[in-house]
Design goal:
mainly beta; 18-stranded mixed sheet; globular
């Protein structure tokens, strides 16, 4: 199975094979993986352009704590890049894949999540972002606080979200839609299970393929069937499919 990686700003690479990995970046410049210190940076040499990258393959997940206290859950098949030290007036991280953010409040230093197509601005809040390159949509769901999201282009208009709202961007049709949703449907993966309400079976299988790093082959016609219920992700994939 493919290992997870942390690529530091100095170019060194550190691999890990735990299914659930805890990564912490401290204000002193230390980085730890599962309580093991892997790097100590000299703060005098740290620049705003020094970027660390965390790569989580399919079948694994990670919890990340940044130096400002922001807590991030990174889902399977995702990548997060962040500076070793934030700029004086902003905090920017770059995401491919899916992550849940619990951002530490700092009114003078807004937090930005930047994806290939979208940019999300927050001051301190909890929200989920799903932005896999292979998906035709980007989705953002807000649990608490307030965020502003818009296309990652100059002069693009932003959409404000309130708790319980979701924003969906259709990449193919260049359309943004906002609606009210049950936030548990989009954030339960953080706690080790998935909840569905009339979800197309093909979408359920896509999530399971990412989580277990397994290809699921299905019979014709399953794309017309929907699934509602709860799936525990700690179980063997065969037990989940039996459910």
């Amino acid at each position: 199975m493919q290992k997870g990686k942390v690529i530091l700003s100095n170019g060194s690479t550190h691999e890990f094979d735990t299914e659930h990995t805890i990564i912490k970046q401290t204000s002193a410049g230390n980085l730890t993986i599962n309580n093991d210190t892997i790097a100590v940076n000299d703060r005098q040499t740290v620049t705003e352009s020094a970027i660390n990258q965390i790569i989580i393959p399919y079948g694994k997940r990670s919890e990340i704590t940044l130096a400002d206290g922001t807590h991030i859950w990174l889902n399977s098949g995702s990548q997060l890049s962040y500076p070793t030290e934030f700029k004086p007036d902003s905090r920017e991280v770059y995401l491919t894949g899916e992550a849940f953010f619990d951002v530490t409040t700092d009114a003078g230093k807004p937090f930005y999540v930047i994806t290939r197509d979208f940019k999300i601005k927050v001051l301190g809040t909890s929200f989920n972002v799903s932005s896999y390159n292979e998906d035709t949509t980007i989705q953002t769901v807000l649990l608490k606080g307030k965020i502003s999201a818009g296309k990652n282009k100059l002069f693009s208009k932003s959409v404000d979200l309130l708790p319980g709202e979701r924003m969906v961007y259709d990449k193919n049709n260049d359309i943004i839609v906002k609606d009210k949703v049950n936030v548990q449907l989009y954030t339960s993966w953080v706690n080790g299970y998935l909840i569905f309400e009339n979800e197309p079976t093909t979408e359920v299988f896509k999530m399971l393929e990412r989580h277990y790093n397994q290809i699921i082959k299905t019979s014709e016609g399953l794309d017309k069937i929907t699934f509602s219920g709860k799936l525990e992700l700690k179980d063997n994939i065969r037990d989940v499919l039996e459910n």
